Amino acid sequence: xxGCTLSRRIQEGSQHDYHLKRQAxxxxxxxxxxxxxxxxxxxxxxxxxxxASSMNSSLGYLDWVxxxxxxxxxxxxxxxxxxxxxxxxxxxxxxxxxxEQVAWKEMGKGxxxxxxxxxxxxxxxxxxxxxxxxxxxxxxxxxxxxxLMNQWINRLPDWAKKLISKQLxxxxxxxxxxxxxxxxxxxxxxxxxxxxxxxxPISPVDENNQNRQPAAEQVNLPSNTNGQNESANPSQxxxxxxxxxxxxxxxxxxxxxKGLKADGKGTDYGCVPTSASMITDYWHDRDETNQxxxxxxxxxxxxxxxxxxxxSGMAINKLENDLEPLGYEVETITGTADNAADQLTKLxxxxxxxxxxxxxxxxxxxxxxxxxVVVNAMTDEKVTYxxxxxxxxETVAVTExxxxxxxxxxxxxxxxxxxxxxxxxxx
Length: 427
Prior knowledge:
single chain; alpha+beta; Cathepsin B, Chain A; 13% strand
């Protein structure tokens, strides 16, 4: 619902000054959504109040004489009074929320507006990103308010909770953080009591499947012409415990992004170069005249071109600069949140011509970190893809894949993105 993104240089500054006067931050808050939530929740509160009033009126019409009648009526009236009190508390809280978003708007007027272009959006969606800060660092009152709201909601009767919950956004991240670095969980998400503002890269954690087996050990790939070692599992190929999406699945070598280095240190942001390397290996295996590059070579090239950072990765649209000189046709396609069926059909057509790099959420979730994978087979029911994060091949239902592929990466960021990589002489 609410987010704030700052450049990495600002992130490394003092928690109190953020170097805002020296750097140009990009701030993002979906104030329209906050206003909508406030308006709809106020309407829900009115409905709850009406229910409590009707209940209280009905009690006055009861014509019931028994030893238990007096006690029942007293308890029922106490319940309606409690609901009425909670309604008034809720109205006050949502009024404060409305004032907070107005204060955020006023604060935002002091910052220089930033134009968001397609290249930047692709960087965010393709694995590259900027650091993320909790809104609580900039607007502490907002976080205090959300805590009060949680306490208030927990005190509501179940029927009233349902009325309110329908009006709230689906994603209620505790720190209101936007999608952050691919493959790394910010420290603030792991330690809510850490007020240092430190979000340096830490050991990656897959919160959705912490029991998942580690990626395969490093072995030499026959198709790797430069002789470098890469993490891979050739025996896995496109075979999985489930049937693959199609008997025509492409035999794309499976590689893990584990072990990649950038500027002499390890990096957890190698999903894009690793996925691209899998695809060039596939085309090289079909025809040795097709050149291939290791993931490490792609990392090194993009560091030299200043398109790759050890702490943020690279954008999917930068692959054109790397692969077109090698004789590949590279096209980056960005999608929308609408017309899912049409876009799935286009992806299937692209996969029929060769493996495709697609951008999903890490762990095939519907939120969190963007992640590049290689789709090597697709039918109307199933999708088979190589995941460089785990070094494995997975087969899932098309609907499950699309939930992650088509899920939002943040306000105005493109969804359903993919890259086709084919030898120029393949047509």
